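Re-run with default settings, no changes from the original entry. Doing this only to confirm the output is reproducible before filing.
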Amino acid sequence: MDNFVILLIVCVIAVILFATIVAILSRYRKCPSDKILVVYGKVGTDENGMPRSAKCIHGGAAFIVPVIQSYQYLDLTPISMNVDLRNALSKQNIRINVPSRFTVGISTEPGVMQNAAERLLGLKLAEIQELARDIIFGQLRLIIATMDIEEINADRDKFLIAVSKNVEIELKKIGLRLINVNVTDITDESGYLDALGKEAAAKAVNDAKRSVAEKNRDGEIGQANAQQEQRVQVAAANAAAIEGENESRVAVAESEALRREREAESLRRATAAEAVQQAKAKQEAYTAQQEAELTRAELEKATQKADIIVKTQIAKEKAEIDAEAEAEVIRRKARGEADAIFARMEAEAKGNQEILVRQAEGMRAIVEAAGGDANAAVKLLIAEKLEDLVAIQVEAIKNIKIDKVTVWDSGQNAEGQTSTAGFLSGMMKAVPPLNELFKQAGMELPELLGKEVPETEAEHVETEIVDDGE
C-alpha cells in the first residue's frame, strides 16, 4: 500500500512537471521571416526610462510571459495599390492627371518598426492600404504644385526622386516604407501636353528638312568642285600637249573661258538652291511658330473661360444655398408661430370649456337650492343682479347735460297733461322702469319698493331748467 501511494505521488509530480514544460514551450514564439512579432504588455523601459508600448522582433524568437504579456504578428507582404491622382494643380495653375501605382510594405527598421507596432497593429490589409493611399495622395499634390508640367513630363527621374523622398518620409511616420513607384502617362484636360508634343514634332520636322537642304547644297557644291578639278586637269593636259602652238593657246583660252562660264553657272545654281532652301526652312519655321502661338492663345482662352465658369458656378451654388437656408428659416418660423397659435387656441378652448363646466355646476347648485324649480332659480339670479340693474338705470341719465329748457305751456292736451308734464314724463319713460323689468322676468315688484300709480294731470306751468354750471 505504501509503495502504491509513493508511485502515485511520483506519477502526479511527473505529470505536473510535464505540463509545466509543455506550457513553457507553448509560450515560446518564433517569428517567421515574412512577419514581425509584436510583444505587448509589460515589456520593460526604453533608453529614457519610460515604459515601452511594445517590443518588435524580426527574424528571431521570444518567450511570452503568461498573464502580463501577449503578442500579435505584423505581415510584411508588400501592398500594391493604384493611385489615380485627378485634377492636381501644377505650378503653372494647370490641372493634370497623374495615374500611378505604388508598392509599400511594413518597414523592418528598428524605429520605423516601432511606429508600425503602435499605429498599424490590429488593422486589416484594406485599412492599411487606404491609410497609405491618403498619405500618397497628399504628397503627390504637394510635389506637383512645386513643379512645371514640362519638368514633370520631361524629367521623370527628378519627379520620381521627389515623390520617393517626400512619400517615404511620411510613410515612415506610420511604420511603412516605399518599395516601388511606377508613373504612367501624364495627361491634362486643357490639352497643354498635346500642344507641347505638336510643337516638338513640328520642330523635329523643320530640323530634318533643314538638314536635307544643307546636304543637298553640299552635294551640289561638291559636284561642282569635282567638275571644276576635272576641267582644270584636262585644260592643263591640253595646254601641255599643244604648248608653243597658237592653236593650243586658242584652245586653252576657249577652254578657260568655258570653264569660267561653267563655274559661274554652277555657283549661281548652288547659291540659288541654297537661298530657296533657306527660304523654305524659314517659312516652315514661321508656320510652326504661328501654330504654336495659336495653340497657346486657345489654351489661355480656355483657362480664363474655365476660371470664369467655375467662379460663376460657385456664386450660383452659394446663392442657392443662402436662399434655401432663408426659406428654411421662414418655414421654421411659420411652423413655430402656427404651433404657438394652436397652443394658445387650445388653451383658450380648455379655459372656456372649464368656465362653461363651472357655470353649469353653479346653475345646477342654484336649481337644487331652489328645490328643483328652474323659474325660482332664474328669479334668484335676477334678484342677485337687481342692484346692478338699478345702477345701470341711474347711470343712463346720470351724466345728461341740459344747458337750458324753455317750455311755453298752452294748457292741457287731449289727455289732460301739460306740455311740461309730457316732456318730463317722456324723458323718464325713456328709462325702462323696474316694474317692467320684473314683469319681463316673470316676477312682481315687492310692495316695499312701491306700487304702480295712475298718472295724474299735471298743472300748466312754465319751467326753465338751468345747468348747475350756470
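The longest strand covers residues 95-106. DSSP finds eleven helices and eleven strands in the chain.
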